[in-house]
Amino acid sequence: MLKIIFYIFLMCLSMSTKASEQSFYLSLNKASVVKPITTGECAPLPSNETLRAQTHLRTLQEWQRYCVYIPVELDDNAPLGTRLDLIFLGSAKVYWDGEWLANKGVPGHNSAQEQVGPVSLSALLSPVQTSAGLHWLALDLSTQHHESDFHTLFYGIALTNHQFALKTNHIVPLMLIGAMILLATCFAFLFFRYQRSLSYLAFSCLCLMSAFIIALELIKFYWSYPWNLHLWRLRIILACVILAGVCLVSFYASFFQSKHLKYWLAGTLALNLLTVLTVKSFDMSNYVVFITSLVNSALISWLALKKQVQAKAHLLMLLSGIAAMFLIPMSFIDTWFAALFSVIALVNLYALIGHFNLQRQAALKKSQLEAELLRRNLQPHFLMNSLTLICEWIETSPKQAIELVEQLSEEFRILNKMSEQTWVSLEDEIALCQMHFAIMQKRQQKALSLTIDVPATRYYLPPAIIHTVIENAFSHNRIKAGDSFEITASAHNNRLKLCVKTPYRQRKHQGQGTGSAYIHSRLQQCFDDDYEFESVQQDTIWLSTFLIPLQKLIPA
């Protein structure tokens, strides 16, 4: 399923969203006359006196009423289906060449008179209205229903081709929304049902917030909501960007196993809060919040370069995003914001798929090692010899038979528990070795000795590696009365050295069987290649030496 979503992302990013070459667009933002009024209504056509006051639509302010006149010069007849698009935070009556065209709410001199209309309006123009020559667009406009000072009230007025507007391609962002929701659901499921990895949860939240951001950007194309709700839409977008930034930092800190996750999150949240309190523009707030998250994520990736091979690819991607934001900041906010989110999600998805596959392989290897540990200790000859001895003792020495049964039961219980673990304490490992030694001493019916010299500190190591050495000594050796076994451990320079001495009376090499393979597999699973294991003969002694990293806590 993850690969299917990955291909959906690639398809989305490769599809073109360009419109037909027959599209028509004429901006009407520049040559405008804006005149404030306190009483009455606006005339459908401007007077000569009015035309002397040249201002710009961006001078619109809250709690005002204006007469707006815009000359429209068409050199040729506009294409059939041309329409007038208006996007601003205010109510207005719209006139074209002195005739009423449409209402965008009802303008008024106060909030009681004003009726809020949609944030955007599209009005289809007839061929006569779009013939070559000079035309006049007039707006009787008011902005009474604003709850606070707003950075921008005017967004644009233009003539566009109606057919182009109908064919505008929103399929790609809609597919991205669907893909991100699928990803969010998939990784939330993995988090709750497979592994409680913070990187899974952070990536799920990142995808969900990305989907919300793209959806909130697209909503204006499908719902012309009342313009007094626009402020709330921008607030929700800013909240989603803040959450997405926190999720991004959280993902990288957990994915690269940073030890300072809490500090990264606290720093990111503090900077975001400072941005919200000091920056008035929503666009600029989104810009600063997101670039803060990118910079923090890039720093985490940079710090992980020495330990994580894939950190380099993530760092290059994040630096590219930061560069794009500095080179084309406004274009980035309007056009590439969601695109960069999608690329980040795509790269992180690819990394998580690889990470997920490695975890599956590790889980499979762990299962194989668990089965190997149990199989080696449930060998037919071991069980047969033990059961035969028990049968004999039931007749001759019931007490010893019961003790042997209890010891066998306890050893199998410990082994079964250990088989499900990746790490065990040195104390538990020694207890297992003592149990196995006691069982084998009863079976051999010989006087044997086991000397143990290990520190009292609680260290952790892979399960049953010392036990395997002891077991091999009994399974592949000729044991005689008086033989001694020795287990020692010492810590130095953040390394734990384990030495196991066992008797040796055979020609066959003791360390090349399945036991040795099991030991190497367990050490590789826990330490990669950062370990040493040597098993050599020294006269009548077989010496097995382990040198492994010191672990005082079970690694996460």
UniProtKB/TrEMBL annotation:
Residues 1-19 form the signal peptide. Pfam families: His_kinase (PF06580). Residues 370-446 form the Signal transduction histidine kinase internal region domain. It comes from the Bacteria. GO terms for molecular function: phosphorelay sensor kinase activity. One of its GO terms (cellular component) is membrane. The chain crosses the membrane at residues 171-192, 199-223, 235-256, 263-281, 287-305, 312-330, 336-358. Keywords: Membrane, Signal, Transmembrane, Transmembrane helix. PANTHER family: SENSOR HISTIDINE KINASE YPDA (PTHR34220:SF7). This is Signal transduction histidine kinase internal region domain-containing protein. It comes from Pseudoalteromonas phenolica. The lineage of its organism: Bacteria, Pseudomonadati, Pseudomonadota, Gammaproteobacteria, Alteromonadales.
